[in-house]
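User: My notes are a mess, but here's the protein and flavin-adenine dinucleotide's SMILES. Can you give me a structure?
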Amino acid sequence: MFGLGHKKNELVKLLPEVRGRYVCDEPLAKHTWFGVGGPAEVMFYPEDDKDLEWFMRTKPYNLPICVIGGGSNLLVRDGGVPGVVVKLDSKYYRRIELGDGVITCGAGVRNGELKKVMLENGLGGLEFLVSIPGHLGGSIKTNAGCFGKETKDVLLKVTIVNGEGELREVPAEELTLGYRSSCFPDDWIITSLTLRTEPQDPGKTKEIMAEQKAYREKSQPHNVRTAGSTFKNPEGLRAWELIKKSGCADLRVNGAKVSEKHCNFLVNTGKATAHDLETLGETIVQKVKEHTSITLEWEVKRLGIHK
Ligand SMILES: Cc1cc2nc3c(=O)[nH]c(=O)nc-3n(C[C@H](O)[C@H](O)[C@H](O)COP(=O)(O)OP(=O)(O)OC[C@H]3O[C@@H](n4cnc5c(N)ncnc54)[C@H](O)[C@@H]3O)c2cc1C
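Assistant: No problem, the inputs look usable. Here's the predicted complex:
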């Protein structure tokens, strides 16, 4: 069994020798937008795909593994995450290569980094993605979207490393991407991806990006600790309207509160714990259910164990 109950630094002794880096007891609060949560028992930063393949092939049987990206859609619980948390953060995973009308990137590239490449090369079509916080691997897993587009609309293929340590190229259709969801095995780690682009005048690209940025600043909280929309929109409805109608717009649990600007966003005002944020979210689910008979589904991914 693996868990935070073990003596400090015990797990790392059981892990294979790698070229990348292991860090014991890495505080995950500093890896997430909410800024809360306990530590990863071990954090693993693979050097490249070969390193990750080797790790997955030779790691102890039954070792819990999970992967995080930019942490912009995550609520890590206060007890932390037992086992190994993988983060693709080396130079290899931050590479961006241009092809014929396509961009191929490591999964650790920040969505916002695409802006420069698009403007310098007269490319369009990915403006919506640039406006979404997080990394490309996480944006595929969540099929992130906004302004009428989703990641699946621009994704051609990915490479993954699976639980047995095999590297495979997978066409986008096989990931079964749906509304803020994907349906591929939990042990697949997306390591790189190819996006479709279209030729576009940089002036036009800049204009679209500026409009989208202005819209966000007007309608959503910014420069605060949040993880974006907390709940998915039920079919044909808007989560924020249900939340407001159910009298939840002013709710607060200690340092966790509902954003005044957009009531589907929860905010850590500075001293919230993950427990405060999750309790606030669950209170909203309960109240919306009582008022509307609709059960809201969390869009934010909750990870780890309670303290
Ligand atoms: C201010 C704000 C605004 C936002 N606006 C939007 C929006 O408009 N539209 C929208 O869709 N989302 C939005 N989000 C949510 C979030 O930015 C997106 O879901 C984002 O794409 C998540 O990427 P990430 O790298 O941060 O993933 P993380 O939060 O780190 O992880 C999310 C999930 O992806 C998995 N994952 C991460 N990397 C990989 C990988 N390499 N392989 C396999 N699985 C992986 C994780 O295990 C987890 O399940 C917003 C968030 C914030 C804070």
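The mean pLDDT is 96.
User: Great, I'll file this with my notes.
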